[in-house]
# Entry
Amino acid sequence: KQEVTQIPAALSVPEGENLVLNCSFTDSAIYNLQWFRQDPGKGLTSLLLIQSSQREQTSGRLNASLDKSSGRSTLYIAASQPGDSATYLCAVIRTSYDKVIFGPGTSLSVIP
Amino acid sequence: GAVVSQHPSWVICKSGTSVKIECRSLDFQATTMFWYRQFPKQSLMLMATSNEGSKATYEQGVEKDKFLINHASLTLSTLTVTSAHPEDSSFYICSARGTISYEQYFGPGTRLTVT
# Structure
């Protein structure tokens, strides 16, 4: 059974700092891995999707890496801003027809 | 493209009543839609998977007679919470899977409060 964990559960950093969020999954047989952002009381915003054959994806200040063999992914946020404050969710899907399994999330607070 | 909408965005109902939540894929056809529930400060948990024209498949522990799911067309799935109770208060999010890329696209969520 696939389980997804995220470390840390919460993180508070000063503005401008670079930071790394970690995601681990127990079954390396995944189709893709996706990082989402969720603002309080809101839905999900897809940030980056990494196919199983890829090692990383980049979008602006965000960079996500994937190491299937070790069951790990990291989300790197460069030059953090107060607007980055949100909960970040990691999710994996086993096959193209399967459900998405979410991690518990990392709550990020960027202090001005 | 690939927009999923939910209606309503929030709803308050009295205990014992039923409430229906709609999930629509606006610009693509979705043979499969998923319904998730999120309690405060917790992650999303899958409730059920619905395939167009078929009965929904429910996750363990989810009461199928309480959470009725209908996926009557390729662009619409509905979740009806029957005889709602305060413990059903939650954030409900749907996702729709396209028939081409198979990527799942998430709706904005519906906040249900049962008083």
In short: The two ends of chain A are 41 Å apart (CA to CA). Chain A touches chain B at residues 36, 41-44, 46, 49, 89, 93, 96-97, 99-105 (CB under 8 Å). The CA atoms of residues 7 and 60 of chain A lie 23 Å apart. The mean pLDDT of chain A is 93.
